[in-house]
Write a sequence for this structure.
């Protein structure tokens, strides 16, 4: 099938008007790119069509698909952003401009240019997240077709992708895309390891197939007899994830979530009911149970996870979620965007800012740090590195960089809480304010009107947010 026909097929569920605009964008882009070819020898238009297909699979909205089709027009052809605005309106033009401003990053180019560009990629998230979604779908197609490039370019693209696009994909919750990018990167960076793990993965698939069959059958029967409607599917974790776990010292058969079965039901209440029923069928490993519905991950991932002792002496992870949760878990922000589509893009952007903690951190760093290199360093340390997750008194999860203190925590909750922080209790015990918070700590802060920040706090805190707030406090006292 021709790629454009594939596109028409995947956009079937879009409304008539949107489909017409996508077709119009296709004609426009075909004409604009008409004499260009890709390194593979194919006509250039194949690329924007595939970016569009990726976007449609993400359930991105119509304007995003139109912009996806046009994303390389301004950079590579004689047409300008004004032409696009005249033909397709200002919303599409804004998205295309956002994507065009982000050049392909080249790690070999001058450091400063590279840093400025990475910064633009990261901050465009907060202008309009759809820009990043287009950029990720663009990157995905370029990575899928990387075999046509020279080997040093392959390595370079794989490194860029792992260091910038994979973390972004994680943060916006685009799980499927993230996994695919990771596996492609590993196949170029460590081809032997990749081949070896691929073989092992195939072996595991065979070894587990009977066990999955029995488990699924038992769960189905149980759900049917309780008249619960469901969908079910099983999956292996991706190769890159296996690679990471092995690097951390695990043996392949010690990995408890190598294989998972997803049970998708209609309501949140049913999730818990199914959990009880599953535990009746198979004994759970108690310490592997996670309730990400009551406490979603900071990228909005929601599901119940339980690892059970399955048949044939094998461990199986069972994930239980609703259809909406599953969409957000698979496609992330793009799907979230789609669910709340009627809201208008400005309101939507505010909604996202409220729900995704990392977005406000990005805004904050962007406002406070002028130097691009310093900005990227901070992003890497505060967002892209291994963060800790702590609980508030009410059990909400707060994400903080490693080495954060109760002061960082207090400012993250609210400026006034930071400014009047007096004491802190962690897991029931009082700790000093320079205590280094650990994963899963439960934190209760005591505020007093008479308490106020000290200058020495500036040397204690880790987050740039806390630093800035403390400085602001002292400025206001001058
Ligand atoms: Mn492109």
């Amino acid at each position: 099938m021709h790629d454009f026909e594939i596109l028409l097929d995947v956009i079937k569920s879009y409304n008539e008007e949107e489909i017409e605009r996508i077709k119009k964008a296709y004609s426009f882009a075909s004409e604009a790119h008409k004499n260009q070819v890709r390194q593979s020898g194919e006509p250039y238009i194949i690329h924007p069509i595939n970016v569009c297909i990726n976007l449609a699979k993400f359930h991105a909205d119509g304007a995003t698909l139109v912009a996806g089709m046009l994303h390389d027009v301004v950079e590579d052809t004689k047409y300008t952003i004004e032409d696009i605005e005249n033909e397709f309106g200002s919303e599409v033009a804004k998205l295309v401009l956002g994507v065009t401003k982000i050049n392909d990053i080249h790690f070999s180019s001058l450091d400063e240019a590279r840093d400025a560009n990475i910064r633009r990629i990261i901050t465009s998230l907060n202008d309009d997240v759809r820009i990043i979604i287009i950029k990720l779908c663009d990157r995905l197609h370029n990575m899928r077709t990387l075999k046509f490039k020279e080997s040093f370019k392959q390595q370079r693209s794989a490194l860029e992708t792992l260091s910038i696009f994979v973390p972004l994909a994680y943060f916006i919750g685009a799980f499927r895309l993230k996994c695919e990018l990771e596996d492609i990167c590993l196949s170029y960076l460590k081809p032997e390891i990749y081949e070896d793990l691929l073989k092992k993965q195939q072996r595991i698939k065979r070894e587990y197939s009977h066990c999955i069959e029995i488990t699924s059958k038992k769960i189905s029967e149980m759900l049917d007899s309780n008249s619960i409607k469901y969908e079910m599917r099983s999956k292996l974790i991706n190769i890159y994830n296996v690679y990471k776990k092995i690097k951390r010292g695990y043996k392949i058969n010690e990995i408890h979530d190598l294989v998972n079965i997803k049970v998708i039901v209609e309501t949140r209440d049913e999730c818990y009911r199914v959990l009880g029923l599953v535990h009746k069928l198979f004994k759970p490993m108690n310490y592997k149970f996670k309730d990400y519905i009551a406490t979603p991950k900071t990228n909005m991932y929601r599901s119940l996870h339980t690892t059970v002792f399955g048949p044939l002496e094998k461990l199986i992870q069972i994930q239980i979620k609703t259809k909406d949760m599953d969409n957000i878990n698979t496609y992330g922000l793009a799907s979230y965007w789609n669910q709340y589509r009627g809201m208008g893009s400005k309101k939507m952007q505010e909604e996202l800012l409220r729900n995704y903690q990392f977005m406000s951190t990005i805004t904050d760093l962007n406002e406070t740090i002028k130097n691009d290199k310093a900005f990227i360093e901070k992003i890497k340390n505060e967002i892209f590195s291994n963060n800790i997750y702590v609980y508030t008194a009410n059990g909400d999860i707060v994400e903080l960089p490693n080495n954060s203190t109760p002061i960082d925590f207090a400012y993250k909750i609210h400026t006034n809480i930071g400014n009047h922080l007096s004491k802190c209790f962690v897991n029931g015990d009082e700790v000093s304010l320079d205590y280094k918070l650990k994963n899963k700590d439960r934190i209760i802060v005591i505020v007093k009107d008479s308490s106020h920040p000290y200058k020495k706090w500036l040397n204690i805190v880790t987050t740039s947010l806390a630093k800035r707030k403390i400085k602001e406090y002292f400025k206001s006292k001058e």
About this structure: Strands lie at 231-236, 259-265, 290-291, 304-309, 315-322, 388-391, 397-400, 421-426, 429-431, 443-447. The chain has 23 helices and ten strands.
